[in-house]
Amino acid sequence: xxxxxxxxxxxxxxxxxxxxxxxxxxxxxxxxxxxxxxxxxxxxxxxxxxxxxxxxxxxxxxxxxxxxxxxxxxxxxxxxxxxxxxxxxxxxxxxxxxxxxxxxxxxxxxxxxxxxxxxxxxxxxxxxxxxxxxxxxxxxxxxxxxxxxxxxxxxxxxxxxxxxxxxxxxxxxxxxxxxxxxxxxxxxxxxxxxxxxxxxxxxxxxxxxxxxxxxxxxxxxxxxxxxxxxxxxxxxxxxxxxxxxxxxxxxxxxxxxxxxxxxxxxxxxxxxxxxxxxxxxxxxxxxxxxxxxxxxxxxxxxxxxxxxxxxxxxxxxxxx
Length: 320
Hints:
Blueprint: H1 11-22, E1 29-33, H2 40-53, H3 59-70, E2 77-80, E3 84-86, E4 89-91, H4 93-98, H5 111-121, E5 131-135, H6 143-154, E6 159-165, H7 173-176, E7 180-183, H8 189-198, H9 208-214, H10 218-230, H11 233-239, H12 246-259, H13 262-281, H14 290-301, H15 306-319
Parallel strand pairs: 1-6, 1-7, 2-5, 5-6
Antiparallel strand pairs: 3-4
């Protein structure tokens, strides 16, 4: 049985992971490195399905394992993702969205979650030879959480940890040194089209600006497309053009702050950088506004009042 059929364009990673299971040489820590949306999380799921099913004799048992892994309810699997805090309660991004919370800061993997990993690994695996912990967006760990995880990586016991991150620079060197690195690459246009068609998003292929931003990442393309659908069309049309005067800059800043939460505003910066850069290359803008937008990103990440950030940024671009 090929457990990696749904993972397209990552042949080298599949080969390394498959050989590790076949030779029973599972590392205590893995670091899946590569751009967002190119299949790292899917690869982790496929790897775990293969690992947990390796010695099972019956097809029905394998199907049961696959189903529980995909639903994240296998007793020997702990899947950790960044969370928001709301009134002392941790919420996943999906829970925060369902609750209609206005998110003021990006989610992160917290020290309490790292402690829960330690508790999870303190007991022996129930059904498999080793437990597995997956950390999505491992780069969101603060220093305290990362140091706590380091202790677990030093003595994982009968377990394997899979850290998923965009770059090695996003993590502490001490964590990197204790993991086997698996590199994932961006997809070529043919593989990109295949993935988007299989996922039911073939319409994205007719939108070059989305494909341009995604740069070979089908997951990013889908995320960009969905994010675009969530922004009112009139606001989207306004922000794609530089404000013509200070008054229009202030009005646009007010509308952005009123309409979008901080996370959506951070995404909007990426979108505007792409749109404005294309206009700059075509000669429609005399001076690149990329640097002011990058400064705006840093201000938002440092919790500066969003409306003030956009007012200063758009006024500066208007005057450039």
